Amino acid sequence: MKLIELIETIQQHHPEVGETAIVKALNRAQDDFTAKTEIIEAIAEDVLVEDKRWYDLDPGMLTLKKVEIDDISIKRLINPPKEGDKT
Fold first, then answer.
1. Per-residue pLDDT for 82 more than 80?
2. For the segment 15-61, what is each residue's pLDDT rounded down to a tens digit?
3. Residue 86: predicted pLDDT
4. Are 40 and 65 in contact (CB under 8 A)?
5. How many CB atoms neighbour CB 23 within 10 A?
6. Cβ distance 6 to 26 under 8 Å?
7. What angle do CA 58, 50, 70 make, to 5 degrees?
8. Beta strand 72-74 with 67-69: parallel, antiparallel or unpaired?
9. How far apart are CA 34 and CA 31, in angstroms?
10. What is the pLDDT at residue 6?
11. Which of 64, 20, 1, 57 lies closest to 28, judged by CA?
């Protein structure tokens, strides 16, 4: 279905709802669906810095599936780091 068809269908049942509100709701529903189904995958790259342990990731990334450094797969952290550990 195209966007205009979705809007028209929703307005048949909810004529008081404006087009902008419907588009925003459909976008939220799409984001929620893609997050829950993990249908969209992304790859992030960063430059390694000596003695740097923590790196910021795109907040849109919800799950890490694997980490590789120079084509070497890094094992998943089993225990969470100690509180306040920023080394």
1. no
2. 999 999 999 999 999 988 987 887 877 788 888 888 887 888 888 77
3. 65
4. no
5. 13
6. yes
7. 70
8. antiparallel
9. 5
10. 96
11. 20
pLDDT averaged over every residue in the chain: 86
- Residues recorded for the chain: 87
Cross-strand partners of 69: 72
Please spell the DSSP secondary structure of 40-87, one letter per residue: ----------TT-------TT------EEETTEEEPPPSSPPPTT---
Q: How far apart are CA 42 and CA 57, in angstroms?
A: 11
Look at residues 64, 62, 83, 84 and name the one whose alpha carbon lies nearest to residue 75: 64
d(CA 27, CA 6) in angstroms, rounded, equals: 12
Joined together, the tokens standing for residue 75 give 């094992």
pTM over 0.85: no
